[in-house]
Amino acid sequence: MSSRIGVVTFPGSLDDRDAQRAIAIAGGEPVALWHGTTNLSGIDAVVLPGGFSYGDYLRAGAIARFSPIMSSVIDAAKSGMPVFGICNGFQVLCESHLLPGALTRNDHLHFICRDQKLRIENTTSAFTSGFNTNQEIVIPLKNGEGSYIADERTLDELEATGRIIARYVDVNPNGSRRDIAGITNEAGNVVGLMPHPEHAVEAGFGPSLDGLAFFTSVLSTLVNAS
Amino acid sequence: MARVVVDVMLKSEILDPQGKAVERAAQRLGYSTIASVRQGKRFELEIDGPVDDAALARIRELAQSLLANTVIEDFTVRVEDN
User: Fold this and answer.
1) How do residues A87-130 score in pLDDT, each as one tens digit?
2) Choosing a second label site near B18 at 20 to 30 A (CA), which of A27, A50, A214, A216?
């Protein structure tokens, strides 16, 4: 039986369908979850997709963090369920304090949409175990508030404990500290990533198939855990 | 009805690109004495009942959890005179 991976739709989510499609292509069973419920529908893992939940009002991810589904997601994350926040989902995870730091407006103020090269530096998290260490990949990036910020002590700790899962290569597109594109929590089950792997999973669409390994990684993680 | 104002500003060490853009525009318009601009948010809360210490404590709790992200922002809470 394939693993059930939830994808939360908030008002203003954009990439929920693409995330569901990526999960299906990877061999999982996508499960649509609505923000207004607390019922996780028996899922094994969850994706918080990209978009502009609640119109990015107040701060990106700040209102979504208090939606009913997030109280269940936060509890499940603390019990070890794999949680993957992409773009707006990464912002929601930081606002939820499941991940340290914050994502602020791009230092140059422009919305960026480009194919972005990344280096995968952590191959032990629930969503990166299928990569080779220092593997370079190219996936789409599109954000207006993607500049990762944390205090120096937190940044040092993230580096020392191998919790930076991916860094921008060649160009830092948004002013993120230490070129950080994605991080994980101490346990490795909660992962946030600013670029969009769900847009690079199928031949003919997107710059590569490099995004697929994020989704096959969590399926392997779930099989190995059961 | 009493009004409580919560001001939220990015911490001084956090880059404020929006403030910088406003600053450059102001200078372009000839406001040459404006040396620096930082942009923040102001929330006006109309409060039912007395604004005593307990009510202010609740408002600080709201500011801490929702109105501001204390990783990157500072806030102040004050009662506005009618």
Assistant:
1) 999 999 999 999 999 999 999 999 999 999 999 999 999 999 99
2) A50
CATH of the domain at B9: 3.30.1280.10
ipTM: 0.86
Q: Which residues of chain B neighbour A101 with C-beta distances below 8 Å?
A: 71
| Token pair recorded at residue A16 | 């929920």
How many Å lie between the alpha carbon of A16 and the closest alpha carbon of chain B?
Answer: 25
Averaged pLDDT for residues A73-98: 98
The domain at A4-225 falls in which architecture?
3-Layer(aba) Sandwich (3.40)
Give the torsion through C-alpha atoms of A215, A211, A129, A147, to 10 deg: -110
Backbone angles phi, psi at A75, to 5 degrees: -60, -45
The pTM of the full predicted model, rounded to 2 decimals, is 0.94
Percentage with pLDDT > 90 across chain B: 93
